[in-house]
Prior knowledge:
single chain, alpha/beta, Rossmann fold, 2 domains, seven-stranded mixed β-sheet, 12 helices
Amino acid sequence: xxxxxxxxxxxxxxxxxxxxxxxxxxxxxxxxxxxxxxxxxxxxxxxxxxxxxxxxxxxxxxxxxxxxxxxxxxxxxxxxxxxxxxxxxxxxxxxxxxxxxxxxxxxxxxxxxxxxxxxxxxxxxxxxxxxxxxxxxxxxxxxxxxxxxxxxxxxxxxxxxxxxxxxxxxxxxxxxxxxxxxxxxxxxxxxxxxxxxxxxxxxxxxxxxxxxxxxxxxxxxxxxxxxxxxxxxxxxxxxxxxxxxxxxxxxxxxxxxxxxxxxxxxxxxxxxxxxxxxxxxxxxxxxxx
Length: 289
């Protein structure tokens, strides 16, 4: 079968079901180890039988509701390919914006530092911690997760991408408290979906619930972190979080209760949605000191 015919077969099925008809091309160029633009030069070529069989298996998994990222076993984050599977949340572009803003804040507040201690709590695939370690050489990065299976994935990604990150298993801040370390930068993308909120079945049925749901109003893990985090912060520190786009008022209440008189900022993503929380712990008027 020619590639054009094979792709069209599945594109038609997806269009009829009002689903993303670009997925067949994504899966095929991944399996064939080709760049997207190379696909268009192959449209009238016969597809290798072994690749066709693997492609059909993958497309059937997708049609059955499995995310394409888990089928590929990869997701691109900050231009790098990260291994992903059912043990970790699929990295999303909103989180790329969080990383980008953290890098900007490092320039603003820690430019004169020779070394910067950073921790990432709930690291999952390691996308945040590994990317930061690779993008900013001054960082000494420690990452934690409660899931041993997630840490297997994160450690593989660090090894594959040659990133110097140290990983610990444990619940939220406990591994960091046990280490008796203090950090300049605290980063976390905790579960923030309210327990009763309806979400897409492809997410709910496939991605780990421990990485998705954050209690009754979605802020359970934030409040736990806020209550304990000062014990692991240096005198001046930056705290950076991803958050739900509809949680501004609840988040403001939680931050102001835990950090009275401490400046903070909720930043919108590229779509104009509230997505990032930055807390400037004794950083105001002390840039680069």
